[in-house]
Design brief:
169 residues, mainly alpha, two-stranded antiparallel ribbon
């Protein structure tokens, strides 16, 4: 996307490195990072005019986060930024974990529902459909739709067991 590394990207990486290393940021370092990101925001605006809106969006997020950190330091009256005392960061992390948990549970529930539906379809098709399901699995069709299950039932209804085995071999 960028030929040279923009200032907002460098300052955002600086923030991520700080958060990962549990380091300290002084008010001067925060002001410098905010100046870098502000300059990068103007440069990203030029890229957005050329059709790359994602650069502007990333730069705006970085600017917003550094501004929030500077405001946090100013509000608390501390000389340095301490992520352990940043309530907004704690809330954001909690919300991110919650969103991830909800997504994981939804994915697991959808998987379980597919498994139950698949088992019900296989039971409905009967044991005569076993060779067809085995052939579909060998072909790489592990997730079957309702239409696939209906086709298997139709084939087992219209073909005798010997023909089904011959087709699947």
């Amino acid at each position: 996307m960028w030929r040279i590394e923009p200032d907002w990207n460098r300052s955002y990486r600086r923030l991520l490195a700080y958060l990962a290393a549990d380091g300290t940021l002084t008010a001067g370092a925060i002001d410098q990072a905010l100046a870098d990101v502000h300059h990068g925001l103007r440069a990203a605006g030029r890229y957005a005019e050329a059709g790359d809106e994602s650069a502007l969006a990333h730069a705006a997020l970085a600017h917003q986060e550094w501004q929030r950190i500077r405001d946090e330091v100013a509000t608390t009256g501390r000389e340095t930024y301490d992520q352990d005392h940043d309530l907004a960061l704690r809330h954001a992390r909690t919300a991110a974990r919650h969103r991830q948990d909800v997504a994981d549970r939804a994915r697991d529930a959808a998987h379980d529902a597919r498994q139950r539906t698949d088992a019900a379809h296989r039971q409905l098709a009967g044991s005569a459909a076993g060779p067809l399901y085995t052939a579909l699995a060998r072909a790489g069709l592990h997730t079957l739709t309702d239409g696939d299950h209906q086709a298997v039932r139709e084939l087992t209804r219209h073909l005798d067991a010997a023909t089904v085995r011959q087709v699947t071999d």
